[in-house]
């Protein structure tokens, strides 16, 4: 069974641009969560979607947004990129919403570099 | 504010050594504590701990939770170079805006 797939693997953008990252969860998983990982802050929660509805949102500015489609695939968008947005963006999926899930399965992430 | 603190932040050991990684937490609505291993990019699940004092084991790795003192440890015996990775501790909450709160991780390097 295929794991969590994230595309693209690497991305280089310049300040002010916007970017869209994609995540395909494990088949049958309806919950998708997004995390930002930086060396200084570790993994920080961005948002969680379950059955196309945003269930939770972390403490990130409105430039960070996401959505989930009926097939459970999810996208996240970052507008007006800043240098500080350079990070590894990880997607995780689970059968149930995070509060009820026993564990999350992570994708390999998208490494975003903002120049 | 909810927080998960891991120590040490980095560690270098020789093959065959035994290491203990620490994780303390102050989190509301605690549900369980999870350990992940991150070798390259994707964190992979190691353990989920819900009850105090019950050791979970998988090969050379073991972990235990103390819900009274709010901490967990991850032990790795007879370390191998393949154990080199970032070990992440996370607390899963029953409710709240941030369901899963991660520590910053411990970077373990095992040298031959």
Describe the overall structure:
With 115 residues, chain A is mainly beta. Chain A has no helices and eleven strands. In chain A, the strands form two sheets. In chain A, strands 2, 4, 5, 6, 9, 10 and 11 form a seven-stranded mixed β-sheet that branches. Chain A has a four-stranded antiparallel β-sheet with strand order 1-3-8-7, with no helix packed on it. In chain A, strand 4 (31-38) and strand 5 (42-50) form a beta hairpin. Chain B has 112 residues and is mainly beta. Helices cover 0% and strands 60% of the residues of chain B. Chain B is built from no helices and eleven strands. Chain B has strands at 3-7, 10-14, 19-26, 30-38, 43-49, 56-58, 61-66, 71-76, 85-93, 100-102, 106-111. In chain B, the strands form two sheets. In chain B, strands 2, 4, 5, 9, 10 and 11 form a six-stranded mixed β-sheet that branches. A five-stranded antiparallel β-sheet of chain B has the order 1-3-8-7-6, with no helix packed on it. In chain B, a hairpin with a 4-residue loop joins strand 4 (30-38) and strand 5. Chain B is globular. The chains are: A mainly beta (115), B mainly beta (112). At the A-B interface, strand 5 and strand 10 of A face strand 4, strand 5, strand 9 and strand 10 of B.
In short:
Chain A has about 120 residues and is mainly beta.
Range of helix content of chain B: under 10%
Main beta sheet of chain B, described?
A: 6 strands, mixed
What general outline of chain B do the C-alpha atoms trace?
globular
Q: Largest contact between protein chains?
A: A-B, 28 and 27 residues
Most strands sheet of chain A: 7 strands, mixed
Number of helices of chain A: 0
Helix-strand string of chain B: EEEEEEEEEEE
Oligomer: heterodimer
- The geometry of chain A reads as globular
Spans where pLDDT lies below 50 across 5 or more residues of chain B: none
Topology:
The complex is a heterodimer of chains A (115) and B (112).
Chain A: E1 5-7, E2 10-13, E3 19-24, E4 31-38, E5 42-50, E6 53-57, E7 64-68, E8 74-78, E9 87-94, E10 105-106, E11 110-114
Parallel strand pairs in A: 2-11
Antiparallel strand pairs in A: 1-3, 3-8, 4-5, 4-9, 5-6, 7-8, 9-10, 9-11
Chain B: E1 3-7, E2 10-14, E3 19-26, E4 30-38, E5 43-49, E6 56-58, E7 61-66, E8 71-76, E9 85-93, E10 100-102, E11 106-111
Parallel strand pairs in B: 2-11
Antiparallel strand pairs in B: 1-3, 3-8, 4-5, 4-9, 6-7, 7-8, 9-10, 9-11
């Amino acid at each position: 069974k295929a794991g969590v797939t994230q595309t693209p693997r690497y991305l280089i953008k310049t300040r002010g641009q916007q970017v869209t990252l994609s995540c395909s969860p494990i088949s049958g998983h309806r919950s998708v969560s997004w995390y930002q990982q930086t060396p200084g802050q570790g993994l920080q929660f961005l948002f969680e979607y379950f059955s196309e509805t945003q269930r939770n949102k972390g403490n990130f500015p409105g430039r960070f947004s996401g959505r989930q489609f009926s097939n459970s695939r999810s996208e996240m968008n970052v507008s007006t990129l800043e240098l500080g947005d350079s990070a590894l963006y990880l997607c995780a999926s689970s059968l149930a919403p995070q509060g009820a899930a026993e564990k999350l399965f992570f994708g390999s992430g998208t490494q975003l570099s903002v120049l | 504010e909810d927080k998960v603190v891991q120590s040490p932040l980095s560690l270098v050991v020789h093959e065959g050594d035994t290491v203990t990684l620490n994780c303390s937490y102050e989190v509301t609505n605690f549900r369980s504590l999870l350990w992940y291993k991150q070798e390259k990019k994707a964190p992979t699940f190691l353990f989920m701990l819900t009850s105090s004092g019950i050791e979970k084991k998988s090969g050379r790795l073991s972990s235990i939770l103390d819900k009274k003192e709010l901490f967990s440890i991850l032990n790795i015996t007879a370390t191998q170079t393949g154990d080199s990775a970032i070990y992440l501790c996370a607390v899963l909450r029953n409710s709240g805006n941030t369901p899963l709160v991660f520590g910053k991780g411990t970077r373990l390097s095992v040298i031959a």
